[in-house]
Amino acid sequence: MDAAHTKNIDSLTDHVNQYLTFMLGNEEYGVEILRVQEVKGWEAVRSIPNLPSYIKGVINLRGQVIPIICLRERLGMPLNSKTGTTVVIVLRVQTETDQSIIGIVADAVSEVYNIEESMMQPTPNLGSGVDVSFIRAVATMNEKMVVLLEIDKLLQNAVPAATQQALNAK
Q1: Residue range(s) defining the domain that contains residue 63
Q2: Would the pTM of this model clear 0.85, i.e. be above it?
Q3: What CATH code is carried by the domain that includes residue 74?
Q4: What is the total count of domains within the chain?
Q5: Which of 11-15, 24-28, 137-141, 146-150 has the lowest mean pLDDT?
Q6: Is residue 6 part of a domain?
C-alpha cells in the first residue's frame, strides 16, 4: 500500500471513536472504549461506612480495591434491583492529579459502536439550572439515541479524595 493511500485511509478514521454502550432503564449511554478496562457480572460489594449513597462499596479486582458507583443514583435516576444482566463496567478515569480505576453499575451492556464526529449532536440546552457538563454529545445510531458520557467529568469527584487515597494505598 503506498503512502498516499495510507494517508487517505488515516484521514477517514481520524474522527471515528469506538464507544461501549450500556443500558440504564430504557436509555442507552456510551463511554469511550479505550477507557474500559473490563466488564464483569454483578457481584456483591464490600460496604464501607460514611461514603456517599451512590458509592455502593468496593470490590477486589485481582488485588486492586476499586470503588463501585451506582450510575443510576449518580445521575438521579430511580433505583432498581439487580438482575442477571446487571454488570460492572470497570473504567480508567482521569482525575485532577492521577488516574483511578472505578467500577460503574449498569443494567446491561448493549453494543460497541464506531461513532464519527459528524454523527454527534451537541448536548441540548436544558437551561442554566441543569448540569450537562458530563455529556459529551448525543448520537443517533440505528434510529435510537445514545448519550455519550464524558466519564472523567461525571466521576472525577464521585469518590471523595480521602477515600481514593486510602484505596490507592492498599
Answers
A1: 15-169
A2: no
A3: 2.40.50.180
A4: 1
A5: 11-15
A6: no
